[in-house]
Amino acid sequence: MAKKESATNKVTPFLMFNDQLEAAVEFYTATFPGSEVRSMSRACVDGPVTSAEFIVGGQRFMGFNGRPHFRFTEGFSLFVSCEDQREVDEYWEKIVRAGGKPSKCGWITDPFGLSWQIIPRRFVELVGDPNPAKVHAVVTAMMKMTKFDVAALEEAYAAA
């Protein structure tokens, strides 16, 4: 069965922003290939954006400017599967330059409060190994990282 275009998926993440929806949509669509703004609605001609439909990296999102009591938590994050270290570095630096705050284990919070996991595919492959000692070594190395370092993960894997 062929997969439907992601923009027509039945389930769509709906993000409630305080008052930064327009800036967030502009940043996300400029940062990730395969992104576009589908629509933006304003309360009046010169007013702020109140709602938007947008695609980020092929995933459809709906957004709304809510009220200050809406806040993002790490309980919801966006997982970015990166081809290699270069791609990890690229997304990480874009989010940092925009005012993002790095955390641990490949997590970073963007300037709008949304959490992202910037993860190299190689990490997923390494922790999928059937050898528990190798998986443990990779996870232990990852737990010491802020931004993922593919070479260090490979070293931990090889040494186990």
Automatic annotation (TrEMBL):
Keyword line: Methyltransferase, Transferase, Ubiquinone
Coiled-coil stretches noted in the UniProt entry, renumbered to this chain: none
Alphabetical list of Pfam families matching this protein: 3-dmu-9_3-mt
GO molecular function annotation: methyltransferase activity
Keyword Transferase in annotation: yes
GO biological process: methylation
Ranges of residues in domain PhnB-like: 10-119
InterPro entries per UniProt: 3_dmu_93_MTrfase (IPR009725), Glyas_Bleomycin-R_OHBP_Dase (IPR029068), PhnB-like (IPR028973)
Taxonomy, superkingdom: Bacteria
PANTHER family, alphabetized: PHNB-LIKE DOMAIN-CONTAINING PROTEIN, PROTEIN YJDN-RELATED
Protein name according to UniProt: 3-demethylubiquinone-9 3-methyltransferase
Species per Swiss-Prot/TrEMBL record: Vulgatibacter incomptus
Upper taxonomic lineage: Bacteria, Pseudomonadati, Myxococcota, Myxococcia, Myxococcales
